[in-house]
Specification:
Blueprint lengths: L5 H9 L1 E2 L12 H14 L23 H11 L14 H14 L6 E2 L6
Parallel strand pairs: 1-2
Length: 119
């Protein structure tokens, strides 16, 4: 397996993630989507939002403004996210910050994240 040298790993741990950084999330297979939908509905007891909205409604839809991901992160961890949230999000930057805060809460970032002060 591949391991970073200690100095590279330490540098990666102290690099901050910005809401402007690109997120690369591969699309899952359809069976993974079906299992995830069942898990959200039955195990987490969360309602699934409707299909994705038209582009102009981006900030109003929980699947694209980060609010649904926040709900999933809090349900999985049984812990409220305390910092880094913009509810409701005012712009794309605050919607992305919501998503990054949820991913950070779940321990899915490979770098440390600090909430922007201007959310």
């Amino acid at each position: 397996s591949f391991h970073l040298p200690i100095h590279a790993a330490a540098a990666a741990a102290t690099t901050l993630v910005s809401p402007e950084d690109p997120l690369h999330i591969p699309r899952p297979f359809s069976w993974q989507e079906d299992e995830t939908r069942e898990w959200i509905l039955h195990d987490l007891n969360l309602p699934l939002p409707s299909i994705l909205p038209p582009q102009k409604a981006y900030l109003e839809h929980p699947m694209t403004n980060g609010l649904f991901l926040i709900a999933v992160a809090e349900a999985v961890t049984h812990c409220t996210i305390q910092v880094g949230l913009a509810i409701p999000p005012r712009d794309i930057k605050s919607a992305r910050a919501n998503m990054v805060a949820a991913l950070d809460h779940l321990g899915m970032l490979n770098r440390r994240w600090e909430a922007p002060w201007d959310l």
